[in-house]
Amino acid sequence: MGTCKRMLSCLVSVQVDDLECAIKPNFRESNMFQGSIVALVTPMQVDGRVDESSLRALVDWHVEQGTDAIVAVGTSGESATLDEDEHCRVIKQVIEFAAGRIPIIAGTGANSTREAVALTQCAAQAGADACLLVTPYYNKPTQEGLYQHHKAIAEAVDIPQLLYNVPGRTACDMLPETVARLSTIPHIVGIKEATGNLQRVPLLRQLCGEDFVLLSGDDATTREFVLRGGQGCISVTANVAPAAMHQMVAAALRGDAAEAERIDQALAALHKALFLESNPIPVKWALEEMGRIPPGLRLPLTRLSGQYHDAVRVALSKAGII
């Protein structure tokens, strides 16, 4: 229901105490999947417990700063070290804290198809607007395996789904031809493409059609990705610079390359610094420096090495954050 109440394009029939969708909105044409979408961190205390008050404050801040949508419990949200109950609980909390003010995309990928289905069902039942599903990691499926994996999830759960290709973390690259096959399946509406390979943007557009959503998963190349035809990004940098990322992507979407470049130049050092160690190590340290979250991470992740502290501080300063 959350999506239906927010989407202006949804035809509705009014009942006494409720608002029902007469038809499903066209998610591929909605603005839910464009702009700067933050890959939200999951705040934790030193002992690893999820910090709910900090999570609520982050959601409120992103709404205030103009972030276009939130991904809950993706890679930046430490999905790999939350158990299934925690994973579902954090998704539910983010949806609750957002209270319909901003679309929520739930990270529900897994390298087990059954687990991915279960997490996606949980997110759908909680009221998520869409789900983001990373390619199965570690077990290195074939292209046919990738196709069957995502097809099975799409057929099992009635919710818009975004593919997520990040071979640098998964050791598995979903090729454009496989994306094209999947783009014809109902509920699969787009992809977060995190290879940083800008040549894939026009190729994916050609293979998948104009209404298939293309989102960058690489902050450093997001500006060019959007200028070449993408609809936006799912961003790590947006965790610490939400307003600037929103403004940069908005400029690129309206074709103002000069303005997008001007904003992006101030963020360039940040795009680099936030990956000096494995994400989300640097971005959580940066948010801690900003006073927005406590210093918790879960093993096997550890706090940012001291040798990188100055580089992250300098990047935050160049971006006008501290």
Structure, described:
The chain is α/β, with parallel strands linked by helices and 322 residues long. The protein has a single domain (32-265), classed as Aldolase class I (TIM Barrel, Alpha-Beta Barrel), CATH 3.20.20.70. It has helices at residues 2-6, 52-65, 84-98, 113-126, 143-156, 167-170, 176-182, 200-208, 222-227, 242-253, 257-273, 281-289, 309-318, and strands at 12-14, 19-21, 35-39, 69-72, 104-107, 130-134, 161-165, 188-193, 213-216, 232-235. The protein is globular and about 45 Å long. The relative contact order is 0.13. Residues 1-29 have low confidence and may be disordered.
Overview features:
322 residues; 10 strands; alpha/beta; 13 helices; two-stranded antiparallel ribbon
Spans of at least 5 consecutive residues whose pLDDT stays below 50 are 1-29
Q: Please give the largest β-sheet.
A: 8 strands, parallel, barrel
Total E-strand runs = 10
Taken in chain order, the helices and strands follow as HEEEHEHEHEHEHHEHEHEHHHH
Question: CA-to-CA gap between the ends?
Answer: 39 Å
Measured as a percent range, the helix fraction is 40-55%
Superfamily (CATH H level) name: Aldolase class I
Please give the CATH class: Alpha Beta
Strand content: 5-15%
Radius of gyration: 19 Å
CATH architecture: Alpha-Beta Barrel
Given the helix and strand composition, which structural class is it? alpha/beta
